[in-house]
Amino acid sequence: MLSLLRCSQAVHGLMLAGLVTAICFALAGCSYNFVRGVEGSYLATGTPVLGKVTAHNESEQMGGTIEIGSAKSQQCRGRYSVSEVKTNFWKLETGERIYHGKIYCLDGRTGAFELISKDKGKTGSITGEINGEAFQLDVYESKSRGCMTDECRWGLKWTYEKERENMRTYYRVVTEHEPGSMALRVLY
């Protein structure tokens, strides 16, 4: 009788541990937040473009924000969301996703882009246009893991002295091109 009681306690402990592990894996698979660099150019002129993407999954809205510009200053900002999730024969996600987004620039230009990634947005390729000018970017992990500054990690020398003014400008550009939109939601 005592051995039967010990056995049932052991089974109960294993079931509890298994349940906790399953919940942790489920939660880890549903929520993520990371920053990656982007690097490329405008295709017609060859002008270099640098920036970063911040990917997040909140309230089942998979996507993130993109910020691009020159090495010295941020020029455009936008938001993207998943438009297609690839699955295998058994309807399980493969990690390959296609994202679509819109982008708004401080000088009033607007555009759209597509991010194709095989690993849920951690790396991939972005193609798009801003006012008819095509650009192509690659998403990559930090150039140097041993540092925490944007300059060291992504090559960005951006300053955030005019951040409030820039946000007002982005807000104005979004509302001019998308009346009735929730401009702050588009930008963040």
Characterization of this structure:
This protein is an alpha+beta fold and 188 residues long. 29% of the residues lie in helices and 43% in strands. The chain has an eight-stranded antiparallel β-barrel with strand order 1-2-3-4-5-6-7-8. Strand 7 (124-130) and strand 8 form a beta hairpin. The protein is globular, with a radius of gyration of 22 Å. The N and C termini lie far apart (62 Å). The model is unreliable at 10-29 (pLDDT under 50).
What's the helix and strand layout?
Elements: H1 2-30, E1 33-42, E2 48-58, E3 61-69, E4 74-87, E5 93-105, E6 110-117, E7 124-130, E8 133-140, H2 150-154, H3 163-177, H4 183-187
Antiparallel strand pairs: 1-2, 1-8, 2-3, 3-4, 4-5, 5-6, 6-7, 7-8
Tell me the Rg in angstroms: 22 Å
| SSE topology string | HEEEEEEEEHHH
pLDDT < 50 stretches? 10-29
Strand order of the largest sheet: 1-2-3-4-5-6-7-8
Please, how many helices? 4
Could you tell me the strand content as a percent range? 35-45%
Largest sheet: 8 strands, antiparallel, barrel
Give me the count of strands: 8
- The pLDDT mean sits at 81
Short synopsis of the structure:
This protein has four helices and eight strands; from the N terminus they run αββββββββααα.
